[in-house]
Every structure is written in structure tokens, then in C-alpha cells.
């Protein structure tokens, strides 16, 4: 199957700082990528849809000024958590679906963010 | 909101078949049934999908009722590595966006 890779796999940052998470499609071009957040023992929650060359579409209740998404190329989307606080600590996961290769979406391995 | 209902947890003996049910009574005519699983601290993994016919691949089988209001994912010979949270999702074919419900935690026991 197609490969989606995230970096870093885990990150610890101080409260008030910003952290950037990268999501890359390694063997296909993705005009659209999706970002999810998952708290411990909970399901994945869709945060936003990242669109190459245009603004991201955020789900209701997700602060777009706090979670900045940039999709500057067909293989890279970035999620920046700005002014991070301990409550932003979570597992962040991205996904993408290769165009014309079937309906399944492929997920990155996730990024564990801990804000201290 | 998720459009599916799954039992929160199930156990299965290693080597036996695991049958995971899913209710999707409000499924629309253009929506497919997808199954993903998430092993602890990893990204979800695609398993199988179907519209109205039963489907089988190297990982599992998917049985969809004739009225399409429910389905069952079958892992024919469960192994310890199949321990995971299994998510049943309904969505149109060409949408990459997935709305996850709470899923079923499958525990495969020796």
C-alpha cells in the first residue's frame, strides 16, 4: 500500500512554544490530507482537511489560529500547534488517499505531543 | 457524528474466528462500509470495504446484510497480533475524510 510518513514520532515542548508536525506522502501525490487528534483511550477526531495550494477546512470547534495547517506541496502538509498548552498534549495523526488507486486512506504513524 | 454502532469490547481465543458486528441503520445508498484497525499507539490500518456484496481479502471477510443496515467483519484465524481497536465507518466511495466512532477493542487471548 501507499506510504504516509509523519515526523517527528514524538515531541516534548514547553508550554507557550509552538511545534510543527510534518506529514508526507512518500510514493504518491496528495492534493488533500487529513489531520486527526486522539486523546488517550478515545477515538480519532478529525481536526481539519488540508488542501494543497489553498486554505485548510477546519471541523467545528477546532481553532484555526491555534492549529495552523500548510499544504504547500503535493507531498507535504504541516500542522503547527501554536502557543501549546498541556491540554494540547495528544496523539496527532495524518492521512491521505492516493488518487485513482482505490478508496482506502493511508495513515501516518502518528506524532505523540507532550506539552510540559 | 459517527453513523455506526459497535460493541465496546470483545474477546477471542487465538486461532478462532473473530466476528465483529457493526450497525449502520442510517447508511445511504452511495455509502460504503469500511473497516480499519488501530494497534496501540499506531496510525489506523485499512482492512476492507464493501458496498452490498460480501467481500474477502487476505486479511478478513466482510459480510453485509441484504438491507445494508449492519455488517460483520470476520478475522478467520485470529492471532495475538490482531489485538487492536477495530473501527467500522460508512462514507461515500471517493471521500478520504473519515469520521471515527468508538470502535471495538478486540482482545485476542492465548
Can you describe what's shown?
The complex is a heterodimer of chains A (116) and B (110). Chain A contains no helices and eleven strands. Chain A has 116 residues and is mostly beta strands. In chain A, the strands form two sheets. In chain A, strands 2, 4, 5, 6, 9, 10 and 11 form a seven-stranded mixed β-sheet that branches. In chain A, strands 1-3-8-7 form a four-stranded antiparallel β-sheet, with no helix packed on it. In chain A, a hairpin with a 2-residue loop joins strand 7 and strand 8. Chain A is globular. The N and C termini of chain A lie far apart (36 Å). Chain B is globular and about 40 Å long. Chain B has no helices and nine strands. The model of chain B has no long low-confidence stretch (mean pLDDT 93). Chain B is mainly beta and 110 residues long. In chain B, the strands form two sheets. In chain B, strands 1-9-8-3-4 form a five-stranded mixed β-sheet, with no helix packed on it. Chain B has a four-stranded antiparallel β-sheet with strand order 2-7-6-5, with no helix packed on it. The chains are: A mainly beta (116), B mainly beta (110). Chains A and B meet through strand 4, strand 5, strand 9 and strand 10 of A and strand 3 and strand 4 of B.
Weakly predicted, low-confidence segments of chain A: none
How many strands, what sense, and barrel or not for the largest sheet of chain A?
7 strands, mixed
Strand content of chain A: over 45%
Strand content of chain B: over 45%
Per DSSP, the total helix count of chain A is: 0
Based on CA atoms alone, the radius of gyration of chain A comes out at 13 Å
Annotation field: number of helices of chain B: 0
Of all chain pairs, the largest interface belongs to: A-B, 25 and 22 residues
Span from first to last CA of chain B? 36 Å
Largest sheet of chain B: 5 strands, mixed
Q: Which spans of chain B of ≥5 residues are poorly predicted at pLDDT below 50?
A: none
Mean pLDDT of chain B: 93
Average pLDDT of chain A: 94
Strand order of the largest sheet of chain B: 1-9-8-3-4
Kindly state the percentage of residues in helix of chain A.
under 10%
Oligomer: heterodimer
Amino acid at each position: 500500500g501507499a506510504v504516509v510518513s509523519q515526523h517527528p514520532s514524538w515531541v516534548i515542548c514547553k508550554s507557550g512554544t509552538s511545534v510543527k508536525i510534518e506529514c508526507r506522502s512518500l510514493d504518491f501525490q496528495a492534493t488533500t490530507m487529513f489531520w486527526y487528534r486522539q486523546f488517550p483511550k478515545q477515538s480519532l477526531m478529525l481536526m481539519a482537511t488540508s488542501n494543497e495550494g489553498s486554505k485548510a477546512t477546519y471541523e467545528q470547534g477546532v481553532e484555526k489560529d491555534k492549529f495552523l495547517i500548510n499544504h504547500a506541496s503535493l507531498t507535504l502538509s504541516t500542522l503547527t500547534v501554536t502557543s501549546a498548552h498541556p491540554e494540547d498534549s495528544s496523539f496527532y495523526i495524518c492521512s491521505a488517499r492516493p488518487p485513482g488507486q482505490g478508496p482506502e486512506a493511508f495513515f501516518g504513524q502518528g506524532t505523540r505531543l507532550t506539552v510540559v | 457524528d459517527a453513523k455506526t454502532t459497535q460493541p465496546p469490547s470483545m474477546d477471542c481465543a487465538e486461532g478462532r474466528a473473530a466476528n465483529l458486528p457493526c450497525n449502520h441503520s442510517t447508511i445511504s445508498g452511495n455509502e460504503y462500509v469500511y473497516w480499519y484497525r488501530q494497534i496501540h499507539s499506531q496510525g489506523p490500518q485499512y482492512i476492507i470495504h464493501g458496498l452490498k456484496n460480501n467481500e474477502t481479502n487476505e486479511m478478513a471477510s466482510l459480510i453485509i446484510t441484504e438491507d445494508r443496515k449492519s455488517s460483520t467483519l470476520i478475522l478467520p484465524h485470529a492471532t495475538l497480533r490482531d489485538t487492536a481497536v477495530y473501527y467500522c465507518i460508512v462514507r461515500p466511495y471517493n471521500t478520504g475524510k473519515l469520521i471515527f466512532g468508538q470502535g471495538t477493542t478486540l482482545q485476542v487471548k492465548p
